[in-house]
């Protein structure tokens, strides 16, 4: 059974969100470039340009992990299905920003790497991307999707300071 890791995730209250944006990503590794571009334009609209470097690094790692580990091999590449199965969500509250990547896999992200074991796993070859996510965000975690949707969401939280 998957244990969701929700510590540090802001409450999902639609009335408290001051901005949100979402984009579907194709099952190709060049989608990471598109995710970074989407992040740049969204953060610019929200007046958060100064946060781009850290947020884009984390977005790149989360999207790369979803494309590399959460999609079946046959769904990647130029002949991939036209229906995107990875989505990037950016949500802004007055004091925090959340980047979330949804993918179709129900496997926990990073295998042996997890938020609560970040320090002991920093030397592993696999999971270095999540080590960067842990280092550049204020917290991160994941949770399985519920209802008719299958898969998971991996998220990273950034605190915003005035």
Description of the structure:
With 162 residues, the chain is α+β, with helices and mostly antiparallel strands. The protein is built from 3 helices and 5 strands. Strands 1-2-3-5-4 form a 5-stranded antiparallel beta sheet, covered by helices on one side.
**What is the overall silhouette?**
globular
**Rounded mean pLDDT score:** 79
Strand composition percent:
15-25%
Largest sheet: 5 strands, antiparallel
Which strand order do you get reading across the main beta sheet? Answer: 1-2-3-5-4
- Strand tally is 5
Cα distance, first to last residue?
A: 41 Å
Number of helices: 3
Write the layout of secondary structure elements.
Blueprint: E1 19-25, H1 31-45, H2 52-69, E2 86-92, E3 96-103, H3 128-136, E4 139-144, E5 152-159
Antiparallel strand pairs: 1-2, 2-3, 3-5, 4-5
Provide a quick synopsis of the model:
The chain has 162 residues and is of the alpha+beta class.
List keywords for this structure.
single chain, 162 residues, alpha+beta, five-stranded antiparallel β-sheet, 5 strands, 26% helix, 22% strand, globular, disordered N terminus
């Amino acid at each position: 059974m998957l244990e969701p890791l929700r510590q540090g995730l802001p409450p999902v209250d639609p009335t408290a969100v001051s901005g949100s944006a979402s984009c579907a990503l194709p099952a190709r590794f060049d989608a990471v470039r598109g995710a970074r571009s989407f992040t740049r334009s969204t953060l610019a609209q929200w007046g958060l340009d100064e946060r781009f470097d850290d947020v884009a690094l984390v977005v790149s790692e989360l999207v790369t992990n979803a494309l590399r580990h959460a999609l079946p091999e046959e769904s990647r590449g130029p002949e991939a299905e036209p229906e995107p199965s990875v989505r990037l969500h950016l949500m802004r509250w007055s004091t925090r920003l959340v980047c979330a990547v949804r993918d179709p896999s129900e496997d926990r992200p990073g295998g042996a790497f997890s938020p609560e074991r970040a320090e002991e796993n920093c030397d592993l070859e696999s999971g270095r991307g999540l080590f960067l996510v842990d280092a550049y965000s204020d917290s991160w975690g994941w949770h399985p999707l519920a209802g008719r949707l299958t898969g998971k969401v991996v998220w990273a939280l950034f605190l915003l300071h005035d």
